[in-house]
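Exercise: predict the fold of this chain.
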Amino acid sequence: MNGSKIDLNLLVYLDALLRERNVTRAAYSLGISQPALSNGLRRLRDYFGDPLLVRTSEGMAPTEQALELQPMIRDVLVQVDQAIQPRKPFDPASSKRVFRIMASDYAESTLIPDLLRRVRIEAPQITLDILTPSDVSFHDVEQGRVDMAINRFDDMPQSFHQRTLWRDNFSCLMSRSNPILEEFTLDNYLRARHIWVSKTGMGIGVGVDPEDVQRLGWVDETLGKLGHKRTITVFTRHYHVAMQLSQNNDLIATLPTRAARLQQDNPQLVVLAPPFEIEPIELKMAWSPLLHHTPAHQWLRRTIGSVAEASKTPRAAVAAC
């Protein structure tokens, strides 16, 4: 390193460059000109005695030293931001803030309605912008562009804060005129035709391969471990669509119980316990460390957690009469 001091702004520049890995995008995110950022990068290279970012055929790639610096610089900037931000109390009753929440279709169906009712009482001027998993990426959440991600996560960046909101079992939803009701056994379940519904990942979605059992989710993975496979007639990413389709007298939708119970008063449908054991799922909320100490975000987390706790635990799925 050359010199004993470094301009804090240069660390901000380096953080943006390592985040975006593109000078133009990094400059835009910081609200400065591209030449100013390029000059800052030259000073950083001189200070650290390392190129830090190298142009490749796929864009700018960080050096080994840059990758080592990235988490340390992020921690420093977070601490500085916390130190200089005034700790104004958050008043939900008067706030006009927009909270952007990424919610899976399952969470949107089972949690968001209760959350909205609570928010309209405690914070009537706040707006909820509900995004789908395909609308955002983990990068968007990490950078604080999205306030909260609520989903069933297979993997999650280690830097994220997270909290489990609830665990949920599975139930089968089907028409009252479905002949399988006469004898709802595993053999008959396997002979029937099924509706698949799931969307757990983030980012742009792709089509499903019916033969790739390992990627079809909890129900099909469980059947695979038992040496069985069900016949899936339709794939959907929307729980309400699956509920509508289950009114066909030859289709079965196997859903998390909280979702299936949304149709418990529908006279055309029946909710049943599956004829085999399926491991419960966990609904989690996750957020960026950049927002962890923000009073408004702390209120949002408390409110979501309180709503989840207050929601009635779904009754166990009843057996067919």
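Check your answer against the key: The longest helix spans residues 64-84.
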